[in-house]
Amino acid sequence: MNTDKFFEESKEQSIVKATIVSKYFYAWAKVLISQVKNKDKKIAYIDLFAGPGRYKDGSKSTPILILEKAIADKDMQEMLVTIFNDGDPEHAESLKKAIAEIPGINTLKYAPDIKTIVVGEELAKIFEKIKLVPTLFFVDPWGYKGLSLRLINSVLRNFGCDCIIFFNFNRINMGLNNPLVKEHMSALFGNERVESLKQRLDKMNPYERELTVIEEISNALKEMGGKFVLPFRFRSSKGDRTSHYLIFVSKHFLGYEIMKEIMAKESSATVQGVPTLEYIPADKNYPTLFNFSLPLEELEEMLLEEFSEQTLTMQQIYELHRVGKRYIKKNYKDVLIDMEMKGEILCDPPAIKRKSYKGKPSFRDDVKVTFKKRS
Fold first, then answer.
1. What average pLDDT does range 246-269 have in this prediction?
2. For domain 295-371, is the CATH number 1.10.10?
3. Is pLDDT of 1 > 70?
4. How far apart are CA 114 and CA 48, in angstroms?
5. Is residue 295 within 8 Å of 272, Cβ to Cβ?
6. Hey, which bits of 198-301 come out as E strands?
7. Looking at residues 25-53, what average pLDDT do you find?
8. CATH says 3-279 is which class?
9. Residue 349, preceding bond cis, omega within 30 degrees?
10. Residues in domain GMT-like wHTH (predicted)?
11. Number of alpha carbons in the 13 Å side-chain half-sphere of residue 368
12. Would you call 365 helix, strand, or coil by DSSP?
């Protein structure tokens, strides 16, 4: 793929991708800094396919946004180690120049390290032999070459390490049926999963095929220790097909919670306040995955079914139920308030004793909820 064409202009989806990554980096860094300030005193950001730093229209790409956030924070100035890699020497040189032009770049204790390594299994072997400081690992290949479970796991296995992967879905979808790239597909899915996918996908329509492919990538990541996996879909400019996916992987619920809130804000649409966790450049109000559903009513049904005759706090309900679903905390509170008004649950303290906000009672995380027996 000619990556120069990719950087000719800053596409909307590229801006959304960079925004999600840079926002999560800042939130992740603030959490980890407090935990390592008196220990290693270092955190790291690694980008293996960093690109030239700026699009040809002058817009900032992810590396520049990351460094700007670090420069603006005193702790990050002292603790952040950054490694930016691009196999194309011209891109690496362009990135070096773009970084040098960032105001305040010299305030960083550790100067950005720019490399021109071809990403592959050898790099995974290197990472496997060392103990990394808490690291946010961003992998954004132009296709799929260099993207492997082994590489991701070599970083994710360490304390405080999270991973964000951005990839072209269509190239992987086509690659699963191409014997010439079997090695790359096996590196991403695992040998057994690739063979199973080939047999199953031929019988599926495009929508089922997409869901299955992303589900299997998510399962593969979970099996190697990425307990929390969160996909975000990018649609084409017309909104009629998927172009890319951004997948977040973490071992910790807090990271998952933070990233879901960020993805929710960057979603191009919500239905009943529930984010679609996808971005469609052509129409920011076009509801896709929930076209024929009412997600809050579905959430109510799920809660009544799953927690029948149980008593839990709002926070416990939220943590037990939300993983793998699009709902954010506000969605749970809105549904529980409605359920209380309809008499489907009992709350302690009850609504009458809770402070009202915009005509509805508040719903703190420690409110106890008792679900009636499901008839």
1. 93
2. yes
3. no
4. 10
5. yes
6. 228-235, 242-250, 270-271, 274-275, 278-279
7. 91
8. alpha beta
9. yes
10. 279-351
11. 6
12. coil
